[in-house]
Amino acid sequence: MTEDRTGMPKQTPLGWPPRTRRELLVKTLWIGVWLVFLSAPVEDLVNGGHGTGATVAGSLGLAVFVGVYLTLVFRNIGRPFSPRVVLTLGGILGVLAPVLAYTLGSAWLGLFVYLSVAWGATLPLRAAYWAIPASALAMYLVGLHSDEKEARGLLFLVVLIGFAMTGVGQLVRTTIELRKARATVAQLAANEERLRLARDLHDLLGHSLSLITLKSELAGRMLPDHPDKAAQQVADIEQVSRQALVDVREAVTGYRRPRLAAELAGAQVALTAAGVVAEVPAEPDLADVPEEAESALAWALREAVTNVVRHSGAGRCAVRLLRRQTLDGPVLELCVEDDGSGGSGKGPGNGLTGLTERLEKAGGTLEAGRVRHGFRLVARVPTAAGADVGSGA
After folding, report:
1. Local structure of residue 108 (DSSP, 8 states)
2. Distance (Å, rounded) from C-alpha 389 to C-alpha 393?
């Protein structure tokens, strides 16, 4: 046992290897208690009247048996051996028990109890269900040679304790598997959080840095002839930079949920600064739209506008927001269409991949691809029935 923060003793976790000397001592004593059945073989070696050779051979055999038993059971409880090692060590016990009992007498029949315990605790269930009765049968046959009454008395014990240890072994294995599963779940959660953070940072910084770049270019062109307008662009750059810093901090802490109305206003500013004729709807009524769905559409709008500004070379961009009734129920649809080339990429980038994941989590879908005169991105999220939301076209 170990102690918790209050100083009270607590149980050593099942299936864990000893981590302290105290835990090692407790587990050693727990296993050592069951060595009581070795008293008969030890007494037989001392007072059994065997010859010197038989005594030496019996002592060596008993030492090997106990060492293998403790190694197999004690070590396998915390850090399981490979199946090959388990079968090898179990085979050694399976050979020593009948050989020692047959050659040295009925006092050694108790070794079959340890054999049954070892097989029940370490073998797979299907193998243990065959091995335990086999060990009991072998003990009875050996006992016919020395003391049938003793063998008959131990027969039930060998079977009972063997099958009892299958339950203990299964409990230990299940605990180890649960511990591994919990570690795997924690790792998956950490990976998912890293993916979320990567998506947020990509969307946040991609949009903000694109806008900063555009305004910096505008300020550079205006500076010689229009210093006042250039100063205004620099002021806008400072404001965007400060907002980007706030957004990144909120994204890292996991609290940021972009609002669609704010993104619509930001889209108007970004497209206009890039020299793109923008058609953006006024602030919509989103009273019945779930927050997660609105957030997913806001990210979709930000990513779409960023791609238009950075990659498309478009002269015109239309943003539409409307409700539709589909076979799966009412949805809120965001459509961003431009007349540009759509960039040179041959497949979906990180932004579109991240958007697809976001929308899927909100129960929505994403469609993006070339159309006849440009590029179109359509994002849909489920929503409750309500009034139509006006289009910006």
Report:
1. G
2. 12
